[in-house]
């Protein structure tokens, strides 16, 4: 018993590698790697054999090592300010479904409209070499908060909110100004005159557009 305790217990199992799977199937490690990534360069029958053996042996694909070879991680960051908002819950579901069809994994982050928390996570995405980011900017964000990340090589799309002076960053959002204007016109048409707008971060683009509408 003393010997077991001093040696730390049972000897850990040898870690499975691509080379082990390749040897068992009489394939090259490159072919096995491509097969595990479902590359169209590998015949379907070969892909099935590789996946079947990998599952049988309990092999876990080393995504970190693969990303060093391919310069891709298949990770996309999805950054919003309020995951409890039904709008974002529906958006997250749609994004995960679509990116999943393309073999991408979504990392979801809720910054709570705190620019500092947002900054920390954006830098984390860079450190993990994410393939891209979908961002609803925190209220009070500055253009430089995003441009420095884009300039560092992280492809970015803004959603729901926009930031000025970012001409090369695509923005997908609703027309808040027109929507609110039509809502007010509807209320006026019903005879209402004392109309209030409640809610919305005062220093976000969506809130500004709604007030303008």
What labels describe this entry?
about 210 residues; alpha/beta; about 10% strand
Strand arrangement, major sheet: 2-1-3-4-5
Helical element count? 10
Residue-averaged pLDDT? 82
Number of strands: 5
Specify Rg, calculated over alpha carbons. 25 Å
The helix/strand order is HHHHHEHEHEHEEHH
Q: Into which percent range does the helicity of residues fall?
A: 40-55%
Q: How would you describe the shape?
A: elongated
Strand residues, percent = 5-15%
| Structural class category | alpha/beta
Residue stretches low in confidence (pLDDT < 50, at least 5 long) are 1-12
The biggest sheet, with number of strands, parallel, antiparallel or mixed sense and barrel status, is: 5 strands, parallel
- What distance lies between the first and last C-alpha atoms, to the nearest angstrom? 77 Å
Descriptive notes:
With 213 residues, the chain is an alpha/beta fold. It has ten helices and five strands; from the N terminus they run H-H-H-H-H-E-H-E-H-E-H-E-E-H-H. It has helices spanning 2-6, 18-25, 29-36, 44-57, 63-70, 86-101, 115-127, 143-151, 176-189, 205-212, and strands spanning 75-80, 105-110, 132-135, 156-159, 171-172. It has a five-stranded parallel β-sheet, with helices on both faces. Helix 8 links the parallel strand 3 and strand 4. Helix 2 (18-25) packs across helix 3 (29-36) and helix 9 runs parallel beside helix 10 (205-212). Mean pLDDT is 82; it is low at 1-12.
């Amino acid at each position: 018993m003393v010997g077991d305790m001093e040696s730390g217990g049972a000897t850990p199992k040898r870690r499975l590698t691509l080379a082990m799977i390749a040897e068992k199937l009489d394939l090259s490690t490159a072919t096995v790697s491509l097969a595990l990534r479902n590359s169209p360069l590998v015949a379907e029958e070969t892909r099935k054999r590789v996946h079947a053996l990998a599952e049988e042996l309990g092999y876990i694909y080393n995504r970190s090592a693969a990303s060093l070879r391919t310069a891709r991680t298949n990770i996309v960051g999805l950054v919003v300010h309020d995951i409890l908002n039904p709008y974002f819950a529906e958006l997250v579901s749609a994004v995960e479904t679509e990116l999943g069809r393309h073999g991408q994994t979504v990392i979801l982050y809720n910054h709570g409209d705190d620019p500092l928390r947002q900054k920390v996570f954006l830098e984390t995405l860079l450190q993990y070499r994410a393939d891209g980011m979908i961002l609803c900017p925190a209220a009070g964000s500055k253009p430089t908060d995003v441009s420095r990340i884009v300039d560092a090589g992280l492809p970015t799309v803004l959603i729901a909110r926009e930031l000025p002076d970012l001409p090369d960053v695509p923005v997908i959002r609703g027309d808040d100004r027109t929507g609110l204007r039509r809502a007010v016109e509807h209320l006026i048409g019903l005879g209402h005159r004392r109309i209030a707008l409640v809610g919305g971060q005062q220093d976000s683009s969506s809130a500004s557009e709604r007030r303008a509408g």
